[in-house]
Amino acid sequence: MRHGKKFNHLSRKTAHRKAMLSNMACSLIEHKTINTTLAKAKALRKYVEPILTRSKTDSTHSRRLVFRYLQNKYTVTELFRDVAPKIADRPGGYTRIIRTGYRLGDNAEMCMIELVDFNELYTNEKTKKNTRRSRRGAGSTATTTEETVEATTDAATTEEVKVEKVEETKTEAKAEVKPKAEKKTEVKAEKPASKAKPEAKAEDKPEDSDKK
After folding, report:
1. How is the chain split into domains, by residue range?
2. I need a surface site. Which of 64, 106, 132, 144 has the fewest CB within 10 A?
C-alpha cells in the first residue's frame, strides 16, 4: 500500500522505477542533458542531486556509495573526474529543467533536464553580464571624470579664446579712434596759423609807411 508515500511512483513497481532512474542518471552524467517527460525529470532531480553532492568528496567510501546507485563504473569515473570539479563551488541546484512543450501521441508535458554548469550559453551570458557590470561600474566613473575634465578644459579654452577676441577687438577700436583725435589736433593747430597771417600784414604796413 502507498499510505503516506507522496513521491511519484511513475506507474511502475519499485525495482522498475529504481532501474529507470539509475539509467536516466547515468545518461544525464554522460551526456549532460537529456529530454524526457516533466514527471520523470522531477523524479530524476530528487534522485541524482544527492549523488552529485556525494561526488564532491573524492574518497573510496563516496565512490562506493555512488556506484551503489548508478551501477556503472565508467559513469562513476566520469562523475568524479569531470563533473565534480565543476560543481565543487555550487551549494546545490545542480540541474535545470526547461519545458519544451507537449508530446504528440499522449499530450504528455515534455522537458529537457541538464546540468547547470555544463550549459555554455547560460554561463557565458552570465559571466559577460557580470563582467560588463563590473567594468561599467569601474570604468564609467573613470570615463565620466575624464569626460568632465575634458569638458571643463574645453570650456576654459573657449572662454579664453572669447576673451582674447574681445580684447583684440577693443585694441583695434582704440587704434582706430586715436588717428581721428590726431587729425582734430592738427586742424586746431592750423587755424591759429591762419589767424597769424593778418598780423604779419599789419606789421608790414608801418614799414611801408617808413619807407615813404
Report:
1. 14-118
2. 106
**Is the overall model pTM greater than 0.85, yes or no?**
no
Asked if 50 contacts 109 with a C-beta cutoff of 8 angstroms, the reply is no
pLDDT, tens only, 143-199: 555 666 666 667 666 766 666 766 777 676 666 555 544 445 444 545 554 444 455
Rounded-to-integer distance, Cα 25 and Cα 48, Å: 6
Q: Which three cell numbers stand for residue 80?
A: 568524479
- Looking at the chain, how many residues does it have? 212
- Sequence-distant (6+) residues with CB within 8 A of 9 are 2, 17
Task: Determine what percent of the chain is predicted with pLDDT higher than 70.
Answer: 59
Task: Classify domain 14-118 by CATH number.
Answer: 3.90.1030.10
Per-residue confidence band for 209, with pLDDT thresholds at 50, 70 and 90: very low
Identify residue 130 by its one-letter amino acid code. N
Cα 99 off chain centre by: 31
CA distances to 154, 157, 159 from 166, in Å: 18, 14, 11
What is the pLDDT, as a whole number, of residue 194?
47
114 three-state secondary structure = strand
